[in-house]
From TrEMBL:
Keyword match Metal-binding: yes
Protein name: Cytosine/adenosine deaminase
InterPro entries: Amidohydro-rel, Metal-dep_hydrolase_composite, Metal_Hydrolase, MTA/SAH_deaminase
Taxonomy of the source species: Bacteria, Bacillati, Chloroflexota, Anaerolineae, Anaerolineales
GO MF terms, alphabetically ordered: deaminase activity; hydrolase activity, acting on carbon-nitrogen (but not peptide) bonds, in cyclic amidines; metal ion binding
Keyword entries, A-Z: Hydrolase, Metal-binding, Zinc
Keyword set includes Acetylation: no
Residue stretches spanning the membrane: none
Residue intervals of the Amidohydrolase-related domain: 57-433
Amino acid sequence: MTTLLIKNALLLATMDEERHEYSDGAMLIRDGFIERTGFTKDLPETADEVLDLSGHVVLPGLINTHHHFYQTLTRAVPGAQNSNLFNWLKTLYPIWGRMTPEDVFISTQTAMAELALSGCTTASDHLYLFPNGSRLDDEIEGARQIGLRFHASRGSMSLGESKGGLPPDSVVDSEENILSDCIRVIEKYHDPKAGSMLQIVLAPCSPFSVSTELMRDSAKLARHYGVHLHTHLAETEDEEEFCLRKFGYKPVDYMESVDWLGPDVWFAHSVHVRHEDIRKFQHFGCGVAHCPSSNMRLGSGFAPLVEYLQEGIHVGLGVDGSASNDSSHMLGEVRQALLMARLRAGLQGASLSGEKSPKLITAREVLEIATRGGAAVLGRKDIGALESGKCADFIAIDMNKLQYTGSFQDPLSALIFCNPGWVDYNFVQGKPVVFRGELRTANIPDLVNQHNKAAARLVQ
Ligand SMILES: [Zn+2]
């Protein structure tokens, strides 16, 4: 049994059911789980280890619900900078097809290092192509070393160009291989227990890159094993046209036809949805990974974030792949979510009521999406808030920094309104991943060097 006491925090924001916030806050952790939160004066004075966080805001670790770590290898590729989704994909598929297992490993470490430093304690990743002998295991090993909680989505693509899909045949796999590897990784790695550091998700890539049969078979398999399902959905108008032409359905109706609506499913993006689609998500309990930077970067559109929240849909945040963001900055993504929702509200308010000012989403509401929301989307009851019994996954930011000066009246909101930097502490299950601003689990100069070499090899 070991205990860790966090004390004297400028503010401890719990994001618990009642959204308690404690100025001069403290938290007692026992064996990686939270025992108590409250004011410093009300908690024990000592523990096996004590961390004085005077001047810091402490909050639950952020949860990233959609990413493609391997895309850190293709950031800001000139030929893909100014394209919409389908053309962006067509430019990048051949480059990604040259990846090796080492590239998957090093890109996982790079993305996770960036996530850790930007406040993320749990990340989901969607790896959907496995060229040159790459396996999900390469990601899992990279993630294990960095130390973030990981939901590894075993992605897939089976519908190549010759069968009417978008990706070239060279990067798709047979459905037999895909399903047998899904079984292998679930049986080898999936841990559903409280405090789990690793869960497996089944994740056919998108309606335009897998067959109807693979969608159905993946759903059956996931339900047999009790793992979650994930895919891209309703990201662009091109996708909607594709679904209507190939399947005779709009994207959400197509998902319903393949038994993909349920509380064990979450969709990335879901930008182009009708009100009846939102009601279906609500009825079936589906979650959404909102990816504002990517949606703006590719010109995909505005997801109806506020409508989702009003209907009680579980919404988490995703930085999306590092080729369409081109960053893995979680706190930055929270800020983007706030700004994007406000811009949309402004545009709607202007068109609906002239001068009347619309209600604007708050910093606390977007932080809630990135913490409690992400936990709900991933189906986790043990993370997303700082309260008794939950995992000790938290971050702390020193507010005595240039970008936060003058924000003393509301330091929690300042984290979102001001320019987001790196966090100073990031603990997962009570263990430090970032400590006093330093990543404890990898050497960043070595990582940058290896990653740059791998990226350069890919484009040659
Ligand atoms: Zn994506």
